[in-house]
Amino acid sequence: MKKFHRAPIARAVRMALVGSALATVMVSPAQAQALDEIIVTAQKRTENLQDVPVSVQVLGQETLEQLNVSAFEDYVEYLPTVSYTSNGPGYGILYMRGISSGGDGVHSGSMPSVGVYLDEQPVTTISQILDVHIYDIARIEVLPGPQGTLFGQGSQAGTLRIITNQPDPDGFASRYDVGVNTVQDGDMGYSVEGMVNIPMGDRTALRLVGWHQTDAGYIDNAPATLTYAASGITIDNAALVAEDVNERSKTGARAALRIDLNDNWALTPGLIYQEATNDGVWQHDPDNVGDLEVVRFFEDTYDDDWLQATLTLEGDIGDSMSLVYAGSYLDRELISQYDYSDYAEYYENYLAYYGYACYHYDAQGGCADPSQFVAGDETFKRFSHEIRLQSNSDNPLRWIVGAFYQEQEHNFDLQWVVPDMDSANSVIENGATTWQTYQVRTDQDDAFFGELSYDFSDRWSATIGARWFSYDNELYGFNGFLGHCTGFYDADGNFVEDQVNGTPQYPCFDTRILDDSTDGDDTSYKATVNFQATGDVMLYATYSEGFRSGGVNRARVPGIPKYRPDWVYNHELGWKSTLADGRLRFNGAVYLLDWEDFQFGFLDFSVSNLTIISNVGQAQTVGAEFDLAWAATDNFMLTMAASYNQAELEKPYWRTTAEEEAGDPPRAPKGTAMPYVPEFQWTGVGRYDFDFGTMPGYAQLAVTYTGDQWNNLEVADRVKIDAYTLVGFAAGIQRDSWSLDLFIDNVTDERAAIDFLDAGWGGTFDTRDVPNRPRTIGLRFGQRF
Length: 785
What we know:
- By secondary structure, the chain is mainly beta.
- Helices cover 6% and strands 52% of the residues.
- The protein has a single domain (6-784), classed as Maltoporin, Chain A (Beta Barrel).
- It is globular.
């Protein structure tokens, strides 16, 4: 058993106590109304936040609107219990409590460590987060720490839940909002959003939501030339030079129909559709090109269309229990193209070193321009079903049992295209594909779960839980050079799996063929004891476990096995408190997490030309988090939240067993800080309400801080990403049914780096930052009926 790290945990506890002391000092005798009750479903029951012995951060509908939140990059900045990376809209990865190796994000790699739910249904996808438009959203719940019992696969570090507003049979309601904004040194953006809730008799209601939003660009494609070392060919990007190339538009709609079958049972089918078109890149190269400038030799595009159909059935079975069924089908398609000329430059340098002149040839037999891009066609499909039976919550003995099943398929076809290459050597008619990766990945998960809670007295309660799960991961496909291969495309350029007498036809190298699977099963556990110290203060202690399933490596390399599940073991002490006559809410937790046998992805061309996932590491996180809301007066509200995480390797890391056995220095020694884990994050929002003449008005200031962090686990390749502070301001007035709001996001025009990208080729344009959005000033007008 590991020894307890006294110094870090002492620091974490000290930070939490200091926060508590500050909260106590801030309370003044100024009179104010008590804080509103916050309702959550973190334990799959409808409960008061202060009664739930789980760490939960909530952004409610009013808060989301006050912060001008509409997308993933907006709300994640106000969640200091979450760290993240993003390579533009739709490309996001979440981390919680230091459970981050930096090796995630590969198409056929590890599942995410944070689960994402839209209402009752999981929508977690690898590297490409479902960027749900935030409008008419009841709340966003963040549950840090392993949620293996109730949420299972993919929630080993925590769960993020987006909860939509549901149809309401009690009355008609509608609203619309229109907005316009301008970005510093960028273009103009706008949005149109609306909602209508229509009662249809006493037992039925329909809720319709629609939106269109165009986000202004602010990245310029700067003029440049590139000369290839081997062939001597020089290219330029004159035809693509433009300002504000990274524009995004998204359009969508949501419909839900609630049918009260009788006094006890309700059925709610729902449908959500969203399409997004992204042009350009959300990266810049301040060191080699200029601030908010980048160099691209091909167009970059990313179209993301998705549809989710849902069905929820809920009702009471007698007076003692209730049943919930939640099912969903998600269909997502991503069509993309991105410039890959930095790799072409790298390979030309390689050819020149060994005395070669050409790698690709044009139709005349001379050296072809090696410039290339990657064209992607990807589809995600997911079916999920959960059914659970639970007791009514007003009894001393409470329980919940359930079963879960999901099957998800990720089908992707990525082609590396050299347009100037002789198309006669390509398997694509009139095409010039030099390399292709085609893959179908299928993941199936089954689980049975349950939790049992018992109130021993008015003060003492305990909960135990378990989840048995099984997984089945399958990979089928190929990768290889296509220059002289035939036989696996039809006349229209479509992939044909069985072409000759039922025998699959593959590209050049049979060693690159992949058709494999792995499976397994295990059980995760949870135990919580909570103590009601006073009527307003609850203390709890939790032990919980989280897991990710294992999988198949697409790299067919001798000695590289399939990867196994990895586990997080959490030890947590927390508190929920309501003080100052209900005007101050102060919640928090301190924790110690052990991450055992964690999965890590690396790309090493001396081993394989594809990313390899291995169980290589052991890490530990010591941390603390708190959130605070204080109604100082009837007019002034202050909210704060913060997290501290010290996440480090517990043993040295080598890529392979051969490296370790050879006595090579570790790629990362014991004590190395884990990547994408800011040691300290915090956010604070102050809002003052006042009368502007005869109209209610407000002014609001929001500040977020993210500490510095590393972008890689391997010490030789890592870069430190600097800390940053962002400031937002908002003010507005309302009268009768309408409102007018002014927003200034990133008031100081801070140029933060969300991530640092290094392709590793050593070329002219292959290192870039992912910046935050520059200062943006906008107006929003809304009306409610």
